[in-house]
Every structure is written in structure tokens, then in C-alpha cells.
User: What shape does this take?
Amino acid sequence: MTAITPAERRFDVRMSPKDLINIGVFGALYLVVVFGINMLGFINPAVMLVSLVASIVAGGIPFMLFLTRVRHAGMVTIFAIVTAGLLMLSGHPLISFLISVGCALVAEAIIWAGRYRSRRLGVLAYGVYSAWYVGPMMPIFFDREAYFSGPSMQMMGADYVSQMQALLSPGVLVAFDLSTIVFGLLGGLLGLRLMRKHFEKAGLA
Assistant: This one.
């Protein structure tokens, strides 16, 4: 396996202030990338769906860089708690937060299996973590009528809501949910490629 950094990874949960700073910095970068791209979704529902896919892929860049700083079990989970918590404050449902933490725990197990050094397992970990994108869509399955009649959707206007209802059929939702891991893997590979080509030369990874 190829090492992410020369340093040996430790298998404890003791975190230094530097570890917490890395979680905060890369969590912020991840949110800026994801939220910034998803803002394009205000144009129309079709663009919204495309922007979700784009943000999954682009989010692999800061996440893979973050993994080069992960030296303890629990860092990815805290990363998820912080980022998903902030997204919940912005309007994401509770189930989205819970799914994010669950995905992070599985991602933790994956990178632990690679002794925190395997880049390939790092890519897989991001693919699994990206399944949190299923969360914001879950309320549509539970109560479709309530979702589209909610205040946040009504603010978008009747035409937007009508187009979104037509676009997000159960089949499309299931296809999107299943594809999140695939696009996450692509994002992890993109992050890994850029890391090798640019960030390592600049001493950032």
C-alpha cells in the first residue's frame, strides 16, 4: 500500500489541537465547495440535480486532502458531526445528520482497515461517506406532499416546485441514491489525482 504521509498513523482517539484545527479547516473547505456548487440549484430543478452530482465529485478534493491529516480514529466522524450539524442548521432534516454520521463511521472503519495509509481505501471511504447525500432527499419518500408544500419549497415559487415534483419521481430518487457512492468514488479519484499532481509538489499533502 502507498502511504498517505510518511508518518505512522496511531490507533487511538487522543486528538491534539492541531487535529481539531485540521477538522475545522477542511470541514469549512468541504462546506464551501459543496454549498457553493449546490447554490446553482436555485436556477431550476434540473440544474439542482446536476449540481448535487458535481458537488459530490468536487467534494472529493478537500476530503482527500483531509485524509492526509487523519491520524486518529474519530476524526472523520467529528468532521461529519461538524459539517452535517451546520447543514442541519441551514435546513437539512435530522435524518440527514444521522445518515452522515453513520456513513462517517463506516468510512472510519475503511481507513482504519488500511492503517490510515491506504490511498485506495481513502477513495473508497469518500465514496461511502458521500452516501450522506441520500439524507436530504429522504423526506420525499416519507411524505412527498408535506415536503413539497413546506415553507422552504414554497419560497422557490410554484413553477419551481412543479418542475421539481415532475423531475424527482421515485425512480429518479432511487437512481440518485444508488449513484451517490459511484460519484463519490469519482470524487475520491479526482482528489487523489490532483493531490499527486499538484498538492504533493506544493507540500500540501
Summary: Residues 1-11 have pLDDT under 50 and may be disordered.
